[in-house]
Amino acid sequence: MSFRISIVLDRRGKTGKEDEAKKCPVKLRVFSKALKKDKRYNLDMNLTKAEFDTIWINADNKALRSSNKETRLKLQAIENRANEEANAMSVFDFAKFELKLFRKASDKNNVYYHFHLAIDKNLENDKISTAESFRYTLNSLKNFSEKIKKCPIERLTFQAIDVDWLKDYEKDMIANGKSFTTVSIYTRTLRVIFNNAIAVNDLNNEHYPFGKNKYKILRTKKVKKALSSLELKTLFKAKPDNSNEQKAKDFWFFSYACNGMNLKDIALLKYSDIKGDQFSYYRAKTFDKTAEKTVITIYLTEFTNGVISNYGIKDKSGYVFNIVDNNDDSTVQYKKIKNFTRYLNDHIKRIAKANALPEDISTYWARHSFATNSVRKGASMEFISEALNHSDLSVTKSYFAGFEDKTKKDFANSIMDF
User: Fold this and answer.
1) DSSP E strand boundaries for 263-390
2) pTM score, two decimals?
């Protein structure tokens, strides 16, 4: 074994005879041979040396009585469980060991517990949006488990979620007006939790309900929302009724003109990113997903320079736009960006309605409109893929697969324009 576990009386600093009558903390000692590291965990128990020797070192289980016997059994249970958790790991790791030891024995099979592990981990890594996705899924599961299955979410186990359970969940979601896309997102998120539990040896593969001949997650084809050339022209020439609508329109086209730049990336853009007639940034959405970080370079135009000039913070000491502050933590940033996005979407919809444009337009349409218009102008898939910072060409092709037939026809015709 690469570790050694024992129960000890921590008498460090107390070596004299006069100290033997003093109570000292009883601890779980774990020594990693590979790491040559010793850690001691407090067990919220204090004993004198004589008491510890009687209960643990020289104990005759049959001779122990009442409280001493209870204490002995408690310590033995702790040592046994510590050995079980350590033995379950292929490679001993203090962090994983601590995570498993200091929880209820039932937590390993508990869906609620593993959801909160995922939520906490993402919050620690400043992935606020991902943490929110886990929360939304957990709330949906809670509603179904408690109302339909009559099982409190805190008691829901992985073993209870089988193929039939998932089919019932899907059926209930659709009956309550949820889209196939929402069902797909929530069940994929639940699958992540199953995979996490398996990865830390809390769950066996035999209880995995997803995959071939099991529950199949609904596959939905994303409908790419993009404005046609005529609609883009109409929106650009539209006369806003007030400054809020003007701002929404300007930021929508700023995103469009910057290769469909995401609102979060716009909010986090700094003056230090701007060099002459261009600026560079890393896309926040994909930054942590790949080992190789790809910098995106955007060339400024008269329009985009105008937006920076009109809405940019004048002292030029930090962020370009007044969306987030330099001292905001990730949670505050997330809320501010979400509120700003909602504000823009609300006002761009008003412009759309007044100009007979699609009323479900949003800031996300700017990204797809950039991609679509690039295709219309004959840009190669490789160019669009690089501009959108896609991980590979297949992602870009999936964009094209979702565009309207007219776009495909225009693209086909354009290749004969020599």
Assistant:
1) 274-275, 278-282, 295-299
2) 0.69
